[in-house]
Amino acid sequence: RILKMSNNSAGRLFMILNAAVAVLLYKYTGNKDILIGTTIMKQESEAEFINTALVLRHNFPYNLTFKELLLQSRQTIIEANENQNYPIETLLHQLDISFSEEDFPLFDVAILLENIHDKTYLQHIPLDMIFSCFRTEKNIEGVVEFNASLYKKTTIKRIIAHFLNLLEKVLSDVDLRLTDINILSESEQK
Q1: Is the whole model's pTM more than 0.85, yes or no?
Q2: Fewer Cβ atoms within 10 A, N terminus or C terminus of the chain?
């Protein structure tokens, strides 16, 4: 269903996956302002880039539907790509946010579609979790990399199950309000 909804477009597929991860984080935290990291588009030539990481910001007003979030996600991705050459260090300085090599203050979770993103672009940023997906001819494969000092493998398996439950529900009905989505399995609900 996700391939059909994306109309075989890598950009649309990434938009859907990004929105789903944002909803997952919203459901876990209750925060209505979610920041997720990603990378600039994969480049053919090796060069010095001003930024290799992008910040995708999602806001969750009350009664937002998944379809509305997809439109918001699309606009967020377009704007992030348009502003990819604005130095993150300058932004952090303007926001008066301090940071170190061990702590990156803008995001600690990232989403990638390896068909269009290069994971090595994030190697300089300490992350807690990376949702990394790859589209094959007929499937989407995914891996969740995580900081083992923060998460147990069983917790990550539960997060993956919740992510798949979420995708199943929003792909069945894109007009579903995010507040009405239950990411838990039936046994967890019981």
Answers
A1: yes
A2: C
